[in-house]
Amino acid sequence: MAAGASFIPENFDALIEKHGYKAIWKPAIVCECMEEGQPYIHCPLCHGSGYRYLAKKRIRVVSSSFTNEQALTIQGINEPGQAYITPERGVILGYRDKLDFYETTCKHSQTLTMGRKQTSSTYRPIVQVSYVMEGEHIYEENVDFVIDEGRHRLNWIDDATKPREGDKISILYITSPEYVITDMMHEFRSVRNNRGTTTPYAVEMPKQYLAKRLEFVYGETVNRKKEETKEEETKEELSYE
Question: What DSSP character marks residue 20?
């Protein structure tokens, strides 16, 4: 959305309401372990990422454009890729903030390690399991395993088919895409407006940001999903998701 004298705040609000994507916004804050631009890789707070995350908020955003080398489109979002997004008025995003598009679905595949009764944690919450395999054997949900309450693990219910502790299994599942803010494209956006007055006044326009799909950001440590407890998930405080 280019800055111009024709910008009318109410029209943008209507655009957001009608066409905006619902997202969970996780504001980022630099971890205190950061020193000379480098995080402590064994930090117990940020787990080496250099950033912690404040309480989540639900917002709406619109996409100016999505770019991608692939043609696959899921509900208007290209996966994988990057997006130029503009949030609703009053929301100022920051570098490394995260946006979880929880109403949009995509596929993700990874390996899990079998524990005594349940697997290790998935990177992303499981909406639906497509396949779980070990070698040539395909396991069935509600026959061999169930998804745990936190939607990040598989609890085994059939001891006869349970993989051995420490074994690796492959999972393909439906989840929601998460993006991370990597650049502020248009922070200085305002227009002079004289509607209803003889003295023009400045109207701050919505800001535009570049967001990249989290799993495809070089160096992003999403493949070390934290072992969260229910107590941590329910607290509205700093997190390191």
Answer: P
pLDDT digits (tens, 9 = 90+) for 132-169: 999 999 999 999 999 999 999 999 999 999 999 999 99
Give the integer Cα–Cα distance in Å for 157 and 57: 36
Those residues whose C-beta lies under 8 Å from the C-beta of residue 183, and which sit 6 or more positions away, are 95, 209, 210
Q: What is the CB neighbour count within 10 angstroms for residue 188?
A: 9
Strands (E), 40-167: 51-53, 57-67, 73-74, 77-78, 82-87, 98-100, 106-113, 128-134, 137-139, 145-147, 154-156
| Rounded distance between C-alpha atoms, residue 147 and residue 218, angstroms | 30
Q: Closest Cα to residue 21, out of 89, 95, 86?
A: 86
Domain shared by 100 and 182, yes or no: yes
CB of 52 closer than 8 Å to CB of 29: yes
Residue 3 lies in a domain: no
Range of the domain at 69: 9-105+176-230
User: What does pTM read for this prediction?
Assistant: 0.72
> Which residues touch 138 (CB under 8 Å, ≥6 apart)?
131, 132
Q: What CA–CA distances, in Å, run from 231 to 6, 39, 145, 227? A: 49, 26, 24, 12
Q: Are residues 96 and 193 in the same domain?
A: yes
95 and 185 co-located in one domain: yes
Measured CA to CA, the distance from residue 24 to residue 26 in angstroms comes to 7
Q: Kindly give the pairing relationship between strand 21-26 and strand 98-100.
A: antiparallel
Give the dihedral sign, CA 28/33/39/45: negative
